[in-house]
Amino acid sequence: MKFLVAGAIAAAMLSPAAMAQQTPTPAAVPAAATKFGLDTPIETLLADERAKAVLDTDIPGLSSHPALDQFKAMSLKAVQPFSNGALTDEMLKKVETDLAAIK
Length: 103
Description:
The chain is mostly helical. It is 53% helix and 0% strand. It has one domain. Keywords: Signal.
């Protein structure tokens, strides 16, 4: 019986409602977590006017690439190995620096 009660308490603590209560609200997320970086999905970067300007400057043609729909959910880091050398380490470093400057 003791194990049954302990199991019920543990299940209640792990229920979606209990988990939802432990999720931080957007206001509680530190500002640093909202910064753009090389791991940010490309579609998220393109949705922000400032980040899109960085991409258009540092990687010309990316935002109008014919296959954008196929890789827009990926990050620049994830796309780089599939770019056949078009996305160099130097390019990504420049993008990273320019994205970090966005306040």
